[in-house]
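dude i think i finally got it to work??
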Amino acid sequence: MKLLFKQRFFSWLDSYDIYDQSGSTVYTVEGKLSWGHRLHILNSRGEHIATVKQTIFAFMPRFEIYEGERYLGSVCRRFNLFTPRYEIDFNGWEISGDFMEWDYRITNSAGRLVATVSKELFNFTDTYVIDTVSDGDALYALMFTLAIDAEKCSRD
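look at this
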């Protein structure tokens, strides 16, 4: 399943629209006013289904992932000089990216590809393509993409 993750141009808080391959809105992401990033994911009917929340008092940036109210895991940036390194605490997933942090891969503990994420260049707002092997992993891949994008925005 391919998702197009596109940040809204005019927005005070983080907000994104997530489209499927046919151009239909699958998810909407709304930033909430809080200490650190707090992103609520809504389905196409406007129902809250998931949250990505930054942990404030952490040495390295850390984001917790919730489906509904149920804690699923986290993503944390690890210190590294040359390439981005993130630790994912979810289903044995691992993430690796390029130097510019625009393209990365999510794999499972067996090394099999779960999703690829690539940033489209030459857009006015952040735009990513998330390509998942299994449709059931699309929401989870989206949540990790949101967390990594929020971490990069905090750093910049």
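Residues 64 and 74 are 4 Å apart (CA to CA).
im so relieved honestly
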